[in-house]
């Protein structure tokens, strides 16, 4: 966290109903006001199916 902004990074992995696997990188960008989350924006980049 820096000032009123914070960032988290994660990897989402799952299996679809058809059995194929999915993976995506996720970045969340937070804006804080008075110590609480005021805004959360999520950005996702899907990786090719494997």
From TrEMBL:
<protein>
    <recommendedName>
        <fullName>SnoaL-like domain-containing protein</fullName>
    </recommendedName>
</protein>
<dbReference type="Pfam" id="PF12680">
    <property type="entry name" value="SnoaL_2"/>
</dbReference>
<feature type="domain" description="SnoaL-like">
    <location>
        <begin position="2"/>
        <end position="38"/>
    </location>
</feature>
<dbReference type="InterPro" id="IPR032710">
    <property type="entry name" value="NTF2-like_dom_sf"/>
</dbReference>
<dbReference type="InterPro" id="IPR037401">
    <property type="entry name" value="SnoaL-like"/>
</dbReference>
